[in-house]
Amino acid sequence: MPIYAPTLPPAPDLTQGHPPVLVLMRFDLARLWRQKIGRFFGFAFLLVLIVKLAVIYVKYLLDTNVALRPMQDFARTVLAHGADFQADLLNPTSYLLWFLVALVGGGLVARDTLYRVRPLMYAHPVAPKDYLIAKLGFASALPFAVLLPFVLLPWAMSLGVAGIHGPVWPTAPLRLLPALVLISVLMGALAVGASSMAATPRAGVGWVLGLVLGLSALAGMVHGLTGIRAVDALNPILLAESWPQLFVGVDHPLMGWAPALLGTAFHIGLWTFVAAKRTLPSEAVI
Amino acid sequence: MISLDRASLRYGPILGLSPTTFELPDGGGITGLLGPNGAGKSSLLQLISGLLPPSGGDVKVFGEAPFRNPAVLARLGLVPEGDRLPTGLRADRWLRMMGELSGLSGEPLKASMARALAIVGMADRAYLTFARMSKGMRQRIRLAQALLHEPQLLILDEPFNGLDPEARLTLMDLLRRLAEGGVRVLVSSHILGEVAQLTDRILLLFRGRLLAEGSVGEIRQLLDRHPVELRLTGEPQELARWAVEQPELAALRMEEGAIVVSVRSPRDILPRLQRAAAGGQLPLRALDPLDLNLDAVFQYLTKDHA
Asked: In whole angstroms, what is the distance from residue A12 CA to residue B148 CA?
């Protein structure tokens, strides 16, 4: 292969590109797309979504079809209703979602560490905060994108088949979307923080799962030993499940507003801090 | 183009680079950054490429501090040390992201990619994944990413590590052509031969200190404590008789068919030697300087410093 002598054309215009945050997020999205792990999770979540939609239709039939009246009492004991039913829309197999976040988010920073990509990025006009925002943004956008249909589709279907008196409240998205944002940021921050401590993507997955399950076990043990419910705020799984309950106002949420707020702020702050420290240029030495 | 004014770098309690002062002028050319492992080469490159701020002193690249300065970073290209690239990733996709991070997009990005790949001779193989590339090919792709935005300053950290001789020569040829095209190339290496083949202009680092700056010849002249060794091939006794009369002589060693003399101020003695040989007074058949190469300079300087 011949080596061509370099020429000196006019310097290219370097001002027309996209912001680095968007470039990095798009690159991670393309990489995730090529990994094809979305097929399994897409199928699993689609199945759960179909079941949720079917339940809404069944509830609608139970409320409107006279022939099904005798089954109403039985259905009330089996199916959640009222605020519990609204909150349950955002808890589609919580562990499966955490597993997806661990699989994808665990490698987000660790892969760049393994392949020493960060020094190269920082040698371009990319600030560490751009990198951090991109990783946090992508890791948070993933659970948000997975859960968004669980808010909007049941709501739209309920409105479509039964109007404002359907099983899903007309105001449900207004209550569930803020919860969804909090859950997504919590999951994203924890995944990126854990990934930043790992040297390989596999180790990153291990870190995320270890932190999620380890903190859950720890909080459960301390709760069991002391009887103090507030320590459940350490448990990221319970935190994620609490927010929809708090926003829709269920009678007996898993934890109160104060522990949930403190716990979520603690996790987001701590893991963002860890990720910021671990992705500084000094950590990305040549 | 690059100026350091007592710039130093600390890693906590460890001094990675002692206060260092030097300047590299504008325009093309190759400068070798030479030193053994742990000499501070990578620390210096991190300061220049804006990855770290200096712990003390000033670093200026294109007249500005490079740390987190997009205006400077847009004008320099970095090829870090190492051969770790995402194995399953296609080179062109990786290049596209790096180009976009430099601020390129659309047609200008495509044109820049085509140009950079042509320069490194990888235009028809960029669709391959890194796992299917040889080490030399991956190094060329790494170089291509640094050339995408047409930098004026190209920084390469140990670029020849692990390359076979052919790939090494190809890369050297490529760097020379880039330098001739107006790019200032800064190459670090701990292998003297590589730098000696590539350039005469060096920065010599040892234990975090800049020991010397300039051409090998210039630096050699500074080493007054180490006389230059010359091998004079011819009739040894006649040559020795002439040599001992010279005031610059520091030492003399007889060999079979030759003598080795150590002389101070070779600039003074060499014209006299030339005249004597040309006039037939001296049976000189060959003259070989033994320690005017980079290896010798490096040995002397590091030995003195230690």
From this structure: 9
SS3 A195: helix
Contact criterion met (CB < 8 Å) for B80 and A119: yes
Note whether A29 and A138 are within 8 A (CB): yes
Determine, for residues A8 and B108 on separate chains, whether the beta-carbon distance falls below 8 Å. no
Interface of A with B in 154-213 (CB under 8 A): none
| Residue ranges in chain B whose pLDDT is less than 70 | 220-225, 292-295, 304-306
CA distance B105 to chain A (A): 5
Going by C-alpha positions, the residue among B9, B168, B136, B142 that lies closest to residue B81 is: B142
Residue A5, pLDDT score = 46
CB contact under 8 A, B74 and A14: yes
Cβ–Cβ below 8 Å for A6 and B177: yes
B73 inside 8 A of chain A by CB: yes
Q: Cβ contacts (< 8 Å) between A15 and chain B: which residues?
A: 103
Cα atoms in the 13 Å half-sphere on the side-chain side of A242 = 24
pLDDT of residue A104: 93
pLDDT of residue B225: 63
Q: What are the extents of the domains in chain A? A: 20-283
Beta bridge pairs of residue B15: B10
Identify the pLDDT of residue A78: 66
- Chains A–B, number of C-beta pairs less than 8 Å apart: 124
Mean pLDDT to the nearest integer, A248-259: 88
Specify whether the CB–CB gap between B48 and B62 falls below 8 A. no
ipTM over 0.85: no
Q: How far does the CA of residue A263 sit from the closest CA of chain B (Å)? A: 33
Distance from B156 to chain A by nearest Cα, in Å? Answer: 11
Report which of A104, A89, A86, A88 is spatially closest to residue A141, judged by C-alpha positions: A104
What's the pLDDT score for residue A272?
A: 96
What tokens were used for A79? Answer: 């199916």
Residue A241 to residue A264: CA distance in whole angstroms: 12
- Helix (H) or strand (E) run with residue B45 in it: helix B41-48
Non-local (6+) Cβ contacts of A205 within 8 A are A102, A103, A106, A107
> Which amino acid, one-letter code, is at A61?
L
Cα distance between residue A191 and residue A101, in whole Å? 7
Q: Which of A4, A23, A125 sits opposite B118 (nearest CB)?
A: A4
Q: Which residues of B touch A18 (CB under 8 A)?
A: 100, 105
Q: Which helix (H) or strand (E) holds B260?
A: strand B258-263
C-alpha torsion angle, residues B87, B88, B90, B94 (rounded to 10): -60
Q: How far apart are CA B199 and CA B208, in angstroms?
A: 22
Q: Counting every residue, how long is chain B?
A: 306
**CA of A137 vs chain B CAs: smallest distance (Å):** 17
CB contact under 8 A, B86 and A126: no
CA distances from B92 to A24, A104, A125, B21, B129 (A): 16, 23, 20, 39, 9
Given a contact cutoff of 8 angstroms between Cβ atoms, the answer to whether B154 and B79 are in contact is yes
Q: Which residues pair with B30 in a beta bridge?
A: B185
Put simply, whether the predicted model's pTM sits higher than 0.90 gets the answer no
Among B158, B31, B166, residue whose Cα is nearest residue B83: B158
Provide the pLDDT for residue A80.
67
